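queue> holo job accepted (guanosine-5'-diphosphate)
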Amino acid sequence: MFATLSDRLTATFKTLRGKGRLSEADIDATAREIRVALLEADVALPVVKEFIAAVKERARGAEVSQALNPAQQVIKIVNEELVQILGGETRRLRFAKQPPTVIMLAGLQGAGKTTLAGKLALWLKNQGKQPLLVAADLQRPNAVNQLQVVGEQAGVAVFAPEPGNGVGDPVGVARDSIEHATSKLYDVVVVDTAGRLGVDAELMQQAADIRDAVHPDETLFVVDAMIGQDAVTTANAFLDGVGFDGVVLTKLDGDARGGAALSVASVTGRPVMFASAGEKLTDFDVFHPERMASRILD
Ligand code: GDP
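queue> job finished
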């Protein structure tokens, strides 16, 4: 097992007691420990560098207080910086003043979008909302069926093209779904879109066209936490191609080290809003930046 970052920092400062300020050597030693811990958590290197620069600057300015020993003080700074990058407070969904609220999901194929759509719909339903799931992923032959299955499990209606009808026109389906939701008084529409295994110009354009057809109140970028720092490239491509308001991390049950969370939030400046940690529809919650920060530290 790796030593935790808190343990590493505590060990670094073992010999250091009662000094007025942290010395440059102490700060460098701290930076080394943080660097190793973040790289082990699979955080992208540029993010690690930027993070260390911010912590160093704050550590230099900090008086070693009476109440905290140097290790505790640096741990406090690291914790605060981590929470800030991850979005500070939990960023809640913004509901439209005029229903329906439109939530669009974007991300690579296999990221967990369809599963997430079901999880989100159930979560919304449990809050007294009337969600409608929309099958605008017409790329994968089984995607519509898969959404229908999760919709059934969640007890939520699914808007999908009639068989043989609308196939190949995900933008039309998405547009029609809003009319349908408005007339049937659904108050939240969750639009599942297609994703390829790699970033693909045509599908990115399709996602942008769906965005323009449905005017999402929230576009959520869904990303598999297990891809760690590789999430940065995908996140940037989606930010450029479609744009998004928040990030959803999936498969945190497979990798809870936080590399993807920290890298994506830092590079895109978008908060992580939800976390998914399992295949069951109930394995889902809003994301808590401070809990992820403690996980990275402890
Ligand atoms: P999509 O292609 O983005 O729509 O991805 P899917 O929703 O089809 O998910 C791809 C695979 O990942 C499926 O086998 C899901 O059961 C699985 N999956 C989705 N979310 C999670 C999660 O949070 N944890 C785990 N372990 N598996 C997940």
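queue> The pocket of guanosine-5'-diphosphate is lined by residues 107, 109-115, 195, 250-251, 253-254, 276-279, 283 (CB under 6 Å).
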